DNA sequence: TGCTAAGTTGAGACAGTCTCAATATATTTC
DNA sequence: GAAATATATTGAGACTGTCTCAACTTAGCA
């Protein structure tokens, strides 16, 4: 069962709180350098802490990732809400897709985690991914109501497209990721003259 | 520098040839069970051979993968040639994309290898991937000449789309992979009325 | 039959994950 | 402020995996 992770607000002992923050800071650096599959040992080392401490704060890699991404994923949900205010439902969708792809590109290897976590209910990232998906759903609903997207497209389709494009970009280039995203979104439009 | 791998036809000693074949057979099973990131130790174990023997036949995981996929990738190139005979350039393209995606789905994790190998000239899989890409190029040229695909689409776009869709399918479902592929291909069509 | 090039072996150096009994420290209580 | 207690940290150790290479074995030839 996924926990929310040790909420950083919880009454923690002062040293525990300090190590928690140090670990997050180290993880941020190490993930940025080596991607989300980086060595957890190195993160502990760089945080100046024994590896057992890392495991006691973050039982799994995904739990660490969740804590590290919490704010960012919250921001993505907020973005979805804001985009609903745009006059154009079409621009809201492409804007959301771009924002979601930018998010999935923050660390190398992140797209895999985001994609598998939406399926895996036991993942520490599951809830956050679902919130993102829910945001996408609202954006998509409006786009479909406006007739700019085919009715049979699902939020999962958009989510998969965004992450698949981000993944492709990791292997090749940012430009390639953007091209794939464009093709995919374009292909979701209703057939003309229908 | 990528070698073609020990060509199985090379005058090898009988025991070497036998172990080579056993390793390939074991790799096929183990990759099928655990994906292309499976333990090489287990492959050697299952082939009834010391792990040093595996490394002497296949210096890298990619070299092993290349030997294992050689025939299949050759077949994909042949398929491209055959599809050029189809009356419909459109059907040839979708047919090729489906065949390429099926290929990328043979083992879990394969899409990553295919995608990174096309970029990495030192990969043992590079040449084979380039051959596949060349096949896609011919199919694409014809589709563009027939006006069923936009002129600015590249073979790399199609290659990336196919692998990205295959990757998404690994994380979710075969159906999702097919949907993504359809959206992408659809989005590569020329805008109507242009 | 024996020689030699070719091939195989598996221990060992290394890096990583994860656990848990022993230890240390912060906080609470009196 | 000292003792009691709850909370954290530590790092050795069990495990799995990658990859190398000196010592050994054997196939195939003369």
Automatic annotation (TrEMBL), chains A, B:
Supply the SUPFAM superfamilies for this chain. Homeodomain-like, Tetracyclin repressor-like, C-terminal domain
The residue ranges of the HTH tetR-type domain are 17-76
Q: Which GO terms describe its molecular function?
A: DNA-binding transcription factor activity; transcription cis-regulatory region binding
For this protein, the DNA-binding region equals 39-58
Q: What are the record keywords, sorted?
A: DNA-binding, Transcription, Transcription regulation
Q: Which InterPro entries match?
A: Homeodomain-like_sf, HTH-type_TetR-like_transc_reg, HTH_TetR, Tet_transcr_reg_TetR-rel_C_sf, TetR_SbtR-like_C
Q: Which PANTHER family match?
A: HTH-TYPE TRANSCRIPTIONAL REGULATOR BETI, HTH-TYPE TRANSCRIPTIONAL REGULATOR RUTR
Record-given protein name: DNA-binding transcriptional regulator, AcrR family
Record organism: Nonomuraea jiangxiensis
